[in-house]
Request: fold
Amino acid sequence: MEEFTVPIGPQHPALKEPISLRMTFDGEVVKHVDVRLGYNHRGMEKMAEERSYIQNLYLTERICGICSHSHTTCFAQGVEKLMEIEPPKRGLYIRTLVAEIERVHSHLLWLGVAGHEAGFDTFFMYTWRDREIVMDILESISGNRVHYAINTFGGVRRDISEAQKQTILDSLGLLKQRTEYYTNIGTTEPTFVARIKGVGKLSKELALSLCAVGPTVRASGIKSDVRKDDPYAVYNEIPFEVCTADTGDVFGRVVVRVNELFECYKMIEFMLKNLPVGDIVVKAPRRVKENEVVSRYEAPRGENLHYIKSNGTDKPERLKVRAPTLANYPATVEMLKGCFIADIPLIFAAIDPCICCAERMVELVNVKNGEASVVSFGDLKKLASEQYKKCGNKPEPVSIAKQLEKIRRKS
Amino acid sequence: MNEEKIITTIKENLKDKVLELTNPSPRRIFLKVDKNNLCEAISMIKEKLGFTYLITITGLDKTDSFELLYHFADDTNVINIRVSISRENPIVSTVTGVIPGAILYEREIQDMFGIKVENIPDPRPLITPDDWPEGAYPLRKDWKYERPGETIPGGK
Reply:
């Protein structure tokens, strides 16, 4: 049996983050996965040490484009603890409201990506169209579609008017209706379910020992959610359930996310109806006395952690950021082992960074003799269709190199 | 489990190995141990208290020494285990034997602080590029980034 290594990434058209996955295959089956990071390392932790707190608030906003509010909230609530100030209730409600709306937008985006990776592009178009409603709500609240910049130390920067409240409530009705439709498709449509069920299995024990987070760990039957476990902002006042699934596969991750969408709508409605009156912000000092804080936040993809150490000046001594995707890599490597090449994008997308499968160019390295050869996408496609013709749906380990040689000779 | 119960259990089990144990804010516990007792402390909180989830490892450069913080969480509390590492001999033993999910964080610490993790299953660099100069550790306080001088081809 011949094994070969295929590097996927670091540059890929559909990749949110450039990451290199070096995979070793035996025929069609993934044997080993090696992750290489750092292609997008911006040195933000080092940068933060040279900037003042308020500058860092806008720096942390730019860690991620999809969950930008997560990082600023995590940072702001940590710094507020260091400054020993307590934001007013209305400010905290608006902060949490934006957080939940962001979760809706992130989960709708992910649902679309999952549909796209499973070859169900209609689903992708539909969810992304409805995501626009959420983006419009965010724009009406904060003035921005992507980096909302609603947070400041001691509260939020913009208030919500009665008219805005009503518009959001009206749009929620439409979103709910659409999400019900997606739940129906995502969890019962036979072709889609057949594609995602049993793919990318992660057992409960493995998820625990590899310290996975977010919907990935909740889909393996572990009730872990920072909003419930370590309540911040106003989560101890809002009624909500932690959604879990026990299948531990991509199907489970879809179920967890669509159920979370409904919880989000419930929470948004509750917050809008119970929005307290009063100030939205208190004045924050510029200098912060020496202390340290561990701030946690449940981002759409899992737990964020910011560790902030202050030294008495207006700049932090150290800011450590742990984003959820990094925590999910060891678990993803385990999920990918033993799967087929065609399942790689689906499994990788299921933790929420997305990677599309080999496009344009693939380099094949023969494990036995270390010979590398560059194959065009067209050749690879021919190879794949020939192999499937030969053995139907059950891929058998066949010599890839020999087949390639054949294709080359023909052309 | 509340903080007091956790603190008494830690004191009972680790006894004089506890160098410092504080609870500065609700649900946050800071424990300081010697680096030689790190694995023992981690397996203790894992088995006796059910802290199986390592959130991350934070490195700190205190100019005269380094400090590592291992953040652990259960379903309510966070225990931060602190170890001090000398600057002259920056070595720490791996915790992947107890917590397999620690591997990426340990590799990150190696790259960014130059703290050698002993017996690490995979010692290759994770974040720094392949052509990164040896001995340059970005998150150390004495490391400064200098932008290379720009030369415009054909310019003055």
Remarks:
- Chain B touches chain A at residues 25, 27-28, 52-56, 58-61, 69, 71, 73, 75-78, 80, 99-104, 125-129, 138-139, 145 (CB under 8 Å).
- The longest helix of chain B spans residues 3-14.
